[in-house]
Amino acid sequence: MRGVKALGALLSVALLAGCGGAVASVRQAECGGYALLPVPPKMLYPTANATAVPDGNFTLVLSSTYGIGVYLSGGSGGNLSLATTTVPSPLPSPSATAPPNATPAGYAVGPLAAHTTYTIAATFTQPAGCPNISGTVGSFTTQ
Q1: Contact in structure between 32 and 130 (CB atoms under 8 Å)
Q2: Taking a C-beta distance cutoff of 8 angstroms, is the pair 38, 135 a contact?
Q3: What digits encode the pLDDT tens for the residues 29-73?
Q4: Backbone φ, ψ for residue 2 (5° rounding)
Q5: Which helix (H) or strand (E) holds 110?
Q6: Do you find a cis peptide bond into 94, omega within 30 degrees of 0?
Q7: For a tag site, which of 1, 7, 46, 118 has the least CB within 10 Å?
Q8: What is the arithmetic mean of pLDDT over 111-140?
Q9: 16 vs 37, 100, 136, CA distance in Å?
Q10: What strands, in cross-sheet order, belong to the sheet with 133-142?
């Protein structure tokens, strides 16, 4: 029965994401309920799953802001918090096209390790007594 509930929740998330829904629901067992996560923004630069990305000192651009803090994880450095910065114009190449009505957000990326895959994620606060949770945006690999 638990497998059926998990499958139902997964299908709901997929339907919301596929229909451009604004909110996805993720099971949060510690609080006995569901935590709400906005559907992740699109990676504009670097693009999702990009390889040969410069090994640091560039602006990560997402199609919108996400959570209360965006961070990179990967390599041996743990989580690296990213500060907001100005979105470059034009975007570096290659970049993805922003969805209609998007307000891109820029995040300053410092030096990174070469040949390393990094995951972009964000932290979301939850109601009192529940732990904060993270939502994944995507990943890229440095050159």
Answers
A1: no
A2: yes
A3: 556 666 667 778 999 999 999 999 998 899 999 999 888 889 999
A4: -65, -35
A5: strand 105-111
A6: yes
A7: 1
A8: 86
A9: 11, 18, 16
A10: 50-53, 133-142, 117-124, 69-73, 79-81
